[in-house]
Amino acid sequence: MNNYWEDVLCNDLYNSFDLDTNFTKIVNDVTCEDVRRVLNYLLSQGNRIEVTMTTD
Questions:
Q1: How far is CA 17 from the centre of its chain?
Q2: What's the pLDDT at 17?
Q3: Mean of pLDDT over the chain
Q4: Distance between CA atoms of 40 and 50, rounded to whole angstroms?
Q5: For the chain, domain boundaries
């Protein structure tokens, strides 16, 4: 079993939603308020990461 199907099965089992069949509906149903709430939650944790990009 690959990771995709493992995630689909876990979401179906533990979260009671079918990510594979309902993916388009799930994405289309995301509102600005949903995004705002998630970002506020993530930013309130105070974590930070520094990324440095160089050419090889």
A1: 14
A2: 81
A3: 90
A4: 19
A5: 3-43
